[in-house]
Amino acid sequence: MAHPLRVVVLGCVEFSLAMAQAIRDSQYAEIVGIISKNESNFNSDFVSLKGFADQNDIDYLNWTNPSECVSSWVLERGVDLIFCVGWSNILRTEFLRSPKLGVIGYHPAMLPKHRGRHPVIWSLVLGLDSTGSTFFWMDEGADSGDVISQEVVPIKDSDYAADLYQNLVTSSALQIGKMLQELSLGDLKSFPQDGEQATYWRKRRREDGIIDWRMSARSIRNLVRGLSNPYVGASAFYNGEEYKIWRSDIVVCSETGIEPGMVTDLDGTEFVVQTGENRLRVVDHSLKNLPRLGEYI
């Protein structure tokens, strides 16, 4: 076998840590550097990889601002390959060219479909029954490089964000193992994306996460699924205070003449709310005091 590939991992979310662990465990790679952030309030699933670097005696660089020093740091270590997983900063051309083989990016969607922001959240919010796990060679575009590895990841109706997140981790870890083996043996193949088939998901706004009870129970439940842990949670208001709803179920109901947002049933710590179509049982939430029957949320 050829010598293990000298790899740098770039990332700062929970997914980045899982991928770093998968690369560390491969016989075809040696992680010679970690680039991450010591702290950040940008990602709700933020994880600094500094602890992983320290535990595994790996050189670490705290990314502060994009600069030539990052590329120099990579060049000094004779890096073959960079894995960029869970990273939102723009990468300059000199950085993309600093490793010998290139930079491999990751996007949890079936590229060229659904390029852009928050693919895990949008997949659930829009009620899709599958998404993708895609690795690609990064270029100056947004999620536009040649595809190296791509797998379909099913989405069950019972899946919440953490479930889909874990399913993507499982798929990606297997894909990484195979990619590293093929790269080491010189057998890795890729194919260009069809730009004419590309679609884009926009950046999520705060107001996108506020529940509108005039929506159908299914649409609201999908919103709750998409914004559940490790994300920020779907928001509802009661007595002027904002609360988070983490889990919910649809209650089929044909009764008419009830305004959306009215509480129609109470059951322990759970309560049922009328929506634009059917009702929603709120199962897990942050309300300290439950609304009363007939009140509005």
Characterization of this structure:
The structure is a single chain. This protein is an alpha/beta fold and 297 residues long. It has two domains: 5-201, Rossmann fold (3-Layer(aba) Sandwich), CATH 3.40.50.170; 207-285, Roll (Methionyl-tRNA Fmet Formyltransferase, Chain A, domain 2), CATH 3.10.25. Helix content is 25%, strand content 27%. The chain has helices spanning 14-24, 50-55, 68-76, 93-96, 119-125, 161-185, 217-227; strands spanning 5-10, 29-36, 60-62, 81-84, 102-107, 115-116, 130-137, 147-154, 200-201, 234-238, 241-251, 263-267, 270-274, 279-285. It has a seven-stranded mixed sheet, with helices on both faces. Strands 10-11-14-13-12 form a five-stranded antiparallel sheet. A two-stranded parallel ribbon has the order 6-9. Strand 1, helix 1 and strand 2 form a beta-alpha-beta unit. Helix 1 (14-24) runs parallel beside helix 6 (161-185) and helix 5 (119-125) packs antiparallel against helix 7 (217-227). The longest helix has 25 residues, at 161-185. The chain is elongated and about 70 Å long. 38% of the residues are buried. The model has no long low-confidence stretch (mean pLDDT 94).
